[in-house]
Design goal:
The chain has about 80 residues and is mainly α. It has 3 helices and no strands. It has helices at about 1-15, 25-55, 55-75. Helix 1 (about 1-15) crosses helix 3 and helix 2 (about 25-55) runs antiparallel to helix 3. The termini are far apart.
């Protein structure tokens, strides 16, 4: 189940408007993922990823590497702030 959610999040972020050069915040990454899932659904996100890998494989590999790096941060457990 968790890997399915992570895969869907990766596909949604991949097809989003966010760019690595923007150094997006955690909140903007979460918002982009939600927007893309609502807009395209899981099948639409997967189709967008497949299209990009078919049309531009070199760029798609770089983008997916960025996606996984971003998700590692977003999906990491949040540490409580101690006062």
């Amino acid at each position: 189940m968790i890997s399915t959610v992570k895969d869907l999040a990766a596909e949604a972020l991949f097809v989003s408007y966010l760019q690595p050069s923007e150094s997006p915040t955690r909140a903007s990454v979460e918002q982009a993922i939600t927007m893309m899932i609502l807009r395209h659904g899981s099948d639409g996100c997967a189709a967008g990823v497949a299209t990009e890998f078919g049309d531009h494989p070199e760029a798609a590999v770089r983008r997916m590497a960025w996606v996984h790096a971003e998700l590692a941060e977003v999906l990491a457990p949040r540490m409580p702030v101690l006062h």
